[in-house]
Design a protein that fits this description.
Layout lengths: L1 E7 L2 E7 L9 H14 L22 H7 L20 E11 L3 H5 L15 E3 L6 E5 L13 H9 L6 E8 L6 H8 L11 E3 L2 E4 L9 H11 L5 E5 L12 E6 L4 E6 L2 E6 L10 H10 L5 E4 L8 H5 L4 E5 L3 H13 L6 E4 L3 H16 L11 E5 L28 E8 L4 H13 L7 E10 L2 E9 L2 H4 L7 H6 L4
Parallel strand pairs: 8-9, 13-14, 13-16, 14-15, 16-17
Antiparallel strand pairs: 1-2, 3-5, 3-6, 4-5, 7-8, 9-10, 11-12, 17-19, 18-19
Keywords: Acetylation, Cytoplasm, Methyltransferase, Mitochondrion, Nucleus, S-adenosyl-L-methionine, Transferase, tRNA processing
Family: Belongs to the class I-like SAM-binding methyltransferase superfamily. TRM5/TYW2 family.
GO molecular function: tRNA (guanine(37)-N1)-methyltransferase activity
Amino acid sequence: MRILWKPFGFSRILFKVESCRISESESLTLLVWTSQIQKLSRAPGIFLWDQRKRFSVMPEIETDQRDSALFSPPSNVRGMTKLDRTAFRKTVTIPVLKVRKEIVNKLMRSLKRAALQRPGIKRVIEDPEDEANRLIMLDPYKIITGDSFERAELSILKQLNVNPQISKYNLELTYENFKSEEILKAVLPEGQDVTSGFSRVGHIAHLNLRDHQLPFKHLIGQVMIDKNPGITSAVNKINNIDNTYRNFQMEVLSGEENMMTKVRENSYTYEFDFSKVYWNPRLSTEHSRITELLKPGDVLFDVFAGVGPFAIPVAKKNCTVFANDLNPESHKWLLHNCKLNKVDQKVKVFNLDGKDFLQGPVRKELMEQLGPLSKERKHSVHIVMNLPAKAIEFLNVFKSLLDGPSCNTELLPIVHCYSFSKDPNPAEDVQQRAGAILGISLEACSSVHPVRNVAPNKEMLCITFRIPAAILYKNQTLNLGEQFLGNYM
């Protein structure tokens, strides 16, 4: 029994084709069928194969079954925990087109759709039977016979005097020719989730494996290294982020143990020891979003600065930056990266607890920024608090933080506070929790920006609002009008 297929619309349909004998009395019927088949084979997405007058059409087979029948590793690799690359050898039969070698380059431009695309496979090889010819490897999911070519493809074949007759070629696949997800799908138990994605931090692939994947962790790590150029180390997080220093323990699954790395984000360079600091490449867009909110001359207080992904881009915009992190390693690399990106003269760096930073350097600077001369000030003050597990709790520090008469509403600091939420309505949840800490309602005077989905039913968000004077200053009374004017927008 042979299994043949051809895409049909947006789905893919397989037909089982069994050998069966056709009697003489059925020959006329067969001629009618053959005529219809020839017409259908030229219609987009429909293919039936008349193989020497012996065929029958059987029910559809799922696409996944078709995929596993061809470009999947051998079944004997299932359950492998130590990578054996030699076990992935497999021979498959694919269609090829024989052409004269002098027209190959011109023809390939027109056969991009039909040509085989597999890792490490040359699409054009020498013809073992005729050195004047070449064989173009074709995608067996798209090309079965000459009638499988699209009209434009047939036209160029005719122009170049190429016979569209298809030949068969036995192609040997090796480990190098399979994609990482194909390898892991073949190795892990059937029906289990396959990890093929990771966070890239310089030369390091950072994975977050699930329990059922742990028996295969070293194999998974090696596959990630093999299949991703530039990756020389694969690590797995083995505990949650430490809320004190925002780092976590990790296990090297495969490759080198060097965690000193260099990354490039939004045109800036950062160097650090990934095992000792916090870095998340998935926050690149958020770093850029906040940076774009500030204008030259503005002031930024970065309460949990890490190695500088907010502080450094903002300083490059000729803003004044006060950056703090409690982790001594983050503080060290923050200083280093400020020099590396040539903004060390624009960033004042601190190694304090977030509360001490707010009550000390931030309070002192705000008293100056919002003092009697503040009416002449035209720049804005922003406070970034990127510690989503706990940042909302630090909002309490702003209550009665400043003394003296309040400044104009439009000069009050703008807070960007990050938080996680598992609530069905995460934006409302964050507004209510932040408002509860401050003792006010933030629904009318804040905005909530979704940052990313952290896990199923867990979102990371950023709530932005201007701190009302009645909250920030001692001996002030909050009224509804002032609260509304506290809107930063």
